[in-house]
Amino acid sequence: MGVLDSKVPSGPLADKWTKHKNEIELVNPANKRNIDVIVVGTGLAGGSAAATMAELGYNVKTFCYQDSPRRAHSIAAQGGVNAAKNYQGDGDSVYRLFYDTVKGGDYRSREANVHRLAEVSTNIIDQCVAQGVPFAREYGGLLDNRSFGGVLVSRTFYAKGQTGQQLLLGAYAAMNRQIQRGKIKSYTRHEMLDLVLVDGKARGIIARNLVTGEIERHSAHAVVIASGGYGNLFFLSTYCMGANVMAAWKAHKRGAFFANPCFTQIHPTCIPVSGDHQSKLTLMSESLRNDGRIWVPKKLEDAKAIREGKLKPTDLAEEDRDYYLERRYPAFGNLVPRDVASRAAKERCDAGYGVNKTGEAVYLDFDAAIMRYGREKALTSGMKNPDDKTVRKLGEEVVEAKYGNLFQMYEKIVDQNPYKTPMMIYPAVHYTMGGLWVDYNLMTTIPGCYAAGEANFSDHGANRLGASALMQGLADGYFVLPYTIGDYLSDDIRTGPIPTETPEFEEAENNVRERIQKLMSAKGEHSVDYYHKKLGKIMWNKCGMARNAKELQEAMDEIAELRKDFWANVKVTGVADGKNQELEKAGRVADFLELGELFAMDALERNESCGGHFREEYQTPEGEALRDDKNFTFVSAWEYKGDPRKAKLHKEELVYENIEVKTRSYK
What we know:
Methane Monooxygenase Hydroxylase, Chain G, domain 1; cell membrane; flavoprotein; five-stranded antiparallel sheet; Flavocytochrome C3, Chain A, domain 1; FAD/NAD-bd_sf; single chain; SdhA/FrdA/AprA; alpha+beta; 3 domains; FAD/NAD(P)-binding domain
């Protein structure tokens, strides 16, 4: 166990996936009825995988900590899902999507996986349309597209600003059909607390019923981890409050390598932090950068006056505004990739040009788009020489049709009308490109344990392009895992049901009970949130948008001390054998306190800047990321050795045979 064999098929890149599907082993329909699969997480990756495998005939058990599979964090995705359909006729293709994704990830992703993702992207749209997902359509009835950061084409399919919700409802409907057929057993309000290995293979999980507190054993022939990312490590993030790393971390501690933990995405268009008592952040979709222009005042005195409330942004003349992304990156403008836009916003705010009270915000302005759309609407409506008031009214109607729910959400949170005054935005933690290491079949280094969607590392490298998360989750769940898992399960057609009354299940359950007892018996004085907030501040200040060797080492030491204090002084109220949300949080934060140290160690080990990993020591004179392709063109895969500081580094060398590796430029 633990050998890094990516199992990438031989042959030309464009033929690898087809060749692989033709050569792998299959399980016939009669035998699928005798095979059980556990899926942990019911977001787009887990939900689509569970529905598809059940449709194929496998017996599936799904687990989620929410009260319904449709509550997964995938529901929060706003902007869209990518696919190389080229409906706009603007030059898109499977290769172009593949190239943009590898380049956007700063040449730190596996070529074969990304090309497969681009290939199956076109199937995703057909699948979801067939499910009734109400994608936006243009005047001729065809599906509409918009553009996202890091690309020069329009390939993002969307449903207003609620694309994730609509896609998840499609997957949930497919799941529901299988639940009704008895092919899926849905365990809601259950949390996976350990992975069970029998003879070195993943054969089940230990789960806690979050309503009754009961510890349960569940067996299967294979386990799929589709539990999302670990961004709540930073406490303040755009993730839902319950998002955690527990399922993936338990698999890691059982032998699954954890890859690229330091590759975390900072999203540039988040509503800024408003105070010390805030518990989460809210995202404004990247789709807004299609029409919104990002700027700060050109003069420091104007920025100061705005912060003090003496000047309004609408008072500033056009020549007094610095549209810094358009100035620095003319080819892509406001649609540069997320890591580039985030660092540029931080640079302007650090220089004193921030526009909210804390000085950590820039403007996202729709005035020009409103007037442009208004003039276009007036012309197509046959109006001659309409006044500005009429043009503005028409333009606001167009913008409302495209982004209305996002504008409404912003106004409810900030109490400002974004049709009349620019939005304020600032970067925030949004996605994690790191995750469990998987091979081409999406199997981890534990036989029979798979990872799908954001829980694995495979497709996004050091930076994810917008609208690619939904694409990867659905590709893994609908079109990759249901094929590849059969290759492994073909050896289990005579195995029979996996018993749970075995020493392996006993040992795993005892470990879980001991950990719960340890958490409950700590008679400290600090709440779980006290430690989570402290960890979040360490992570944001020393492992956030900019990192350096000194502070990363400090972060490792501080997190180790914080973890020691947590186990001695945390106070978990309530009881273990019943509903207890403090106990749930305590278990999740305990895992974050281990992952945080590994995260910092991974960032310290990678002596280069790439994508979302920006080391201050490695940058160009213009302040851009400076990669070291000679020494760091590899995936960092960490093996658990009993303590984060003792983790062993394995490297998967990345080979690019179809793309020229060069410095990213969006100028």
